[in-house]
């Protein structure tokens, strides 16, 4: 699992590369728990290279969801592979989180 | 009887027989008053019998079955002296007894004198044979191949000299004298092998010196006796000039003397060797302490004692570093002095590091202390990871810790570190073993939480399968008969794996049984369960679950899906296989009342022959060796082929296909599978 981030104005784009399982979700949790992330108003998650997400990985996003919502930070997933998206859908998270197909779309949603 | 014992006995018999014949021959000679002239038959007979006797005795000793036990040389010396050396004194007593007796009590008797002479000769040969055999063992101690060959040659040459007697060759000629001289040189050459002496400690050396001295006295007595008897005209034959006997006597004497001298001259160095041997033994003890089940403190005991003995330190102490420095062993020092010395070392910034000072007086701080010590050695018991302790050695002479001593102490230190590390590794592995045991118990407990006896009735069939990826898992399922015609089935999956998941699973089971007593609607159940779990589930955890209530009277099925995998269904009327597409959020994701908006109920009228497949994501997300997922489509495909079978057979078909798909690959997630088949038969109405 490789996690990289890119900062542009008030937007932070986190790219996930590989499999988000129990061990790598700890890294993601560290990234999202970092207080400096609250400076941004938009968090985009690039899931293009995310091949697999385990329940632990989902748990990390779920645990931060409320906090971001309270701070009016938008969390947007894009470029999600079909099978990963399916996992979100089965759990019902697609109705709770914003999942769009492209970066442009994500930017549009973010700037609404 | 072993072969060697038989051989030994036959040789002994040969010796006894030939000695008796020899005696008879001599008595016959006296009786007939025959002189053993050159070339006479009696002389030849005499020589043949002497050779036979000598060979018999030597061979009997050669096949002696006693074996060397380790390095117990003293026993051999003692046995040689006690069994054969004493013979010299017997010889002396017999001789003096005859001399005195013939002077005061009876007239000189040629028969008696010859008999005594021959008895003494037999004792002498026995002594030589015994000594030869003992020396052979000492010489061949830790033998090399070359030495073995050399010894073989030596034996053959020595025995060869018997031929001179056998053929009655006059050996004092120009031909044989150089050969004899060469043999004498060979004796010196062989007698150099005195390796065994080095293995004696000081006390043993002293004792062996006394024993060797006594043996030398025996040799001297024998030699003197036969020398005196050489000119005795009363004796019919003179055995004292057989070259074999002379050479053997010379060899036994040379080796005894050499051993004695070497033992005497090695007395002063023996302490050094002993110390080295002790060092080796102590290191061995340290390395074996694990097998002997000793603990760390015992290892440190051995280390402390060994280091003091190896260095000859006058004072010492050992500190263990667990949480803080703690003096565990001391020698000739009290805590106050130790504190003083350590303060000086601390002030010199030499805390817990290796340090040698062979002239403490040169250092102002140490001189100030007014302690009698002049040299100091500090060695830290340090591995790559941590420091176990520090050893301080003090001596009251200057330059006491030379390179040799320091190396020895270092060797001890390294061995001790190794031993302590190994001990700790063993402890860790025992600890792990205990954890494994506890996990096994947890696994057994969890296993007992999964229902074993399924509610069975004539109107439905249920078949279940569950396999955890680890000892304990987060999947669960359960049943509850609400009435004779209604059954509640729940399946769930706790996020994460292992022990924490197992706890939540148990919690969920409790919630199911508690809430379903009230005969709740599936959606209401999910709402209450979500609310209950919100209070106890950690933030990153959530649970997916589906609850089904099947009602036979209504021929209907109502269920709610909280983020769990879609339910696979086969409708026997339309002959269609499909997944129920319902929406519903997992439990514990939204932890307030707004969850009500996220959960929905679905009602479905079932037909007899319908099949419902309920599972966890461990099934659909199982991967093949090529990292392909099993997937919903493949599962649906399986049901399309097997819906007509009994619930059990449908389950087995799916599991077989799943196992074939994943191959031997280790499963990543818990797998649970339930197959429910509806039947067209009345309920039995008894529970």
TrEMBL record, chain A:
Superkingdom of this protein's organism: Bacteria
Pfam families: STAS
Residue ranges occupied by any STAS domain in the UniProt entry: 1-110
GO molecular function terms listed in the Swiss-Prot or TrEMBL record: anti-sigma factor antagonist activity
CDD domains, per the entry: STAS_anti-anti-sigma_factors (cd07043)
NCBIfam families: ant_ant_sig (TIGR00377)
Family that this chain belongs to: Belongs to the anti-sigma-factor antagonist family.
Name of the protein in question: Anti-sigma factor antagonist
TrEMBL record, chain B:
SUPFAM superfamilies linked: GAF domain-like, PP2C-like
SMART domains: PP2C_SIG
Chain segments annotated as transmembrane: 39-61, 73-95, 115-135, 183-202, 209-226, 246-267
One function term, GO molecular function aspect: phosphatase activity
Domain PPM-type phosphatase: 457-678
Assigned keywords, A-Z: Hydrolase, Membrane, Transmembrane, Transmembrane helix
A Pfam family of this chain: SpoIIE
Family annotation (InterPro entries): Bact_Sigma-Reg, GAF-like_dom_sf, PPM-type-like_dom_sf, PPM-type_phosphatase-like_dom
Stated name of the protein: SpoIIE family protein phosphatase
Organism: Adhaeribacter soli
């Amino acid at each position: 699992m490789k996690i990289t981030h890119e900062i542009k104005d008030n937007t932070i784009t986190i790219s996930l590369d590989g499999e988000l399982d129990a061990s790598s979700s700890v890294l993601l949790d560290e990234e999202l728990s970092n207080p400096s992330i609250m400076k941004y108003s938009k968090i985009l998650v690039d899931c293009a290279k995310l091949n697999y997400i385990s329940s632990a990985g989902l748990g990390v996003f779920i645990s931060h969801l409320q906090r971001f919502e309270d701070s009016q930070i938008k969390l947007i997933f894009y470029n999600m592979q079909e099978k990963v998206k399916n996992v979100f859908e089965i759990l019902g998270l697609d109705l709770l989180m914003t999942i769009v197909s492209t970066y442009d779309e994500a930017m549009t949603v973010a700037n609404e | 009887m072993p072969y060697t014992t038989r051989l030994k006995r036959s040789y002994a018999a040969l010796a006894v027989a030939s000695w008796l014949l020899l005696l008879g021959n001599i008595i016959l000679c006296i009786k007939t008053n025959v002189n053993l002239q050159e070339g006479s038959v009696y002389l030849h007979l005499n020589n043949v019998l002497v050779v036979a006797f000598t060979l018999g005795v030597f061979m009997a000793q050669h096949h002696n079955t006693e074996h060397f036990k380790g390095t117990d040389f003293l026993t051999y010396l003692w046995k040689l002296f006690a069994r054969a050396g004493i013979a010299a004194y017997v010889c002396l007593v017999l001789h003096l007894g005859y001399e005195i007796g013939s002077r005061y009590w009876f007239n000189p008797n040629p028969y008696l004198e010859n008999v005594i002479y021959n008895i003494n000769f037999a004792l002498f040969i026995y002594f030589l044979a015994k000594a030869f055999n003992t020396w052979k063992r000492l010489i061949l101690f830790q033998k090399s191949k070359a030495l073995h060959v050399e010894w073989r040659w030596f034996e053959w040459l020595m025995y060869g000299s018997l031929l001179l007697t056998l053929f009655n060759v006059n050996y004092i000629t120009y031909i044989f004298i150089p050969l004899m001289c060469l043999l004498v040189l060979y004796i010196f050459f062989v007698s150099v092998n005195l390796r065994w002496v080095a293995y004696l400690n000081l006390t043993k050396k002293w004792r062996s010196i006394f024993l060797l001295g006594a043996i030398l006295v025996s040799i001297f007595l024998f030699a003197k006796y036969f020398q005196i008897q050489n000119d005795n005209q009363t004796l019919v034959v003179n055995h004292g000039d057989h070259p074999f006997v002379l050479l053997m006597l010379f060899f036994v004497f040379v080796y005894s003397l050499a051993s004695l001298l070497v033992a005497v001259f090695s007395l002063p160095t023996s302490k050094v060797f002993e110390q080295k041997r002790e060092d080796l033994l102590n290191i061995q003890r340290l390395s074996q302490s694990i097998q002997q089940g000793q603990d760390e403190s015992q290892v440190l005991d051995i280390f402390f004692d060994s280091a003091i003995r190896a260095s000859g330190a006058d004072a010492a102490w050992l500190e263990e570093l667990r949480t803080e420095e703690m003096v565990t062993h001391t020698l000739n020092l009290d805590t106050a002095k130790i504190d003083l010395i350590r303060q000086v070392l601390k002030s010199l910034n030499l805390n817990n590091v290796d340090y040698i000072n062979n002239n403490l007086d040169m250092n102002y701080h140490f001189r100030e202390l007014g302690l009698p010590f002049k040299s100091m050695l500090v060695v830290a018991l340090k591995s790559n990871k941590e420091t176990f302790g520090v050893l301080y050695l003090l001596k009251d002479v200057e330059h006491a810790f030379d390179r040799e001593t320091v190396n020895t102490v270092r060797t001890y230190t390294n061995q001790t570190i190794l031993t302590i590390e190994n001990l700790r590794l063993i402890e860790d592995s025992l600890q792990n073993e205990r954890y494994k045991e506890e996990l096994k118990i947890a696994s057994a407990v969890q296993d007992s939480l999964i229902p074993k006896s399924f509610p069975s009735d004539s109107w439905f069939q249920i078949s279940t399968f569950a396999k955890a990826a680890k000892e304990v898992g987060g999947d669960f399922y359960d049943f509850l008969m609400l009435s004779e015609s209604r059954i509640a089935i729940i399946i769930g999956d706790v996020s994460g794996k292992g022990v924490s998941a197992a706890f939540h699973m148990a919690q969920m089971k409790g919630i199911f049984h508690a809430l379903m007593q009230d005969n709740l609607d599936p959606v209401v159940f999910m709402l209450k369960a979500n609310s209950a779990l919100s209070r106890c589930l950690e933030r990153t955890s959530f649970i997916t679950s589906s609850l089904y209530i099947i009602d036979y009277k209504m021929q209907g099925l109502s269920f709610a899906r909280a983020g769990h995998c879609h339910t696979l269904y086969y409708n026997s009327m339309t002959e269609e296989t499909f997944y129920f597409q319902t929406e519903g959020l997992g439990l514990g994701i939204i932890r307030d009342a707004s969850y009500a908006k996220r959960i929905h109920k679905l009602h479905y009228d079932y037909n007899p022959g319908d099949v419902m497949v309920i599972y966890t994501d461990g099934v659909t997300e199982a991967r093949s060796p090529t990292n392909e997922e099993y997937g919903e489509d493949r599962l649906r495909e399986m049901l399309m082929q097997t819906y007509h079978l009994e619930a059990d057979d449908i389950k087995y078909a799916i599991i077989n296909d799943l196992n074939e798909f994943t191959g031997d690959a280790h499963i990543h997630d818990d797998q649970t599978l339930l197959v429910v088949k509806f039947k067209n038969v009345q309920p039995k109405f008894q529970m």
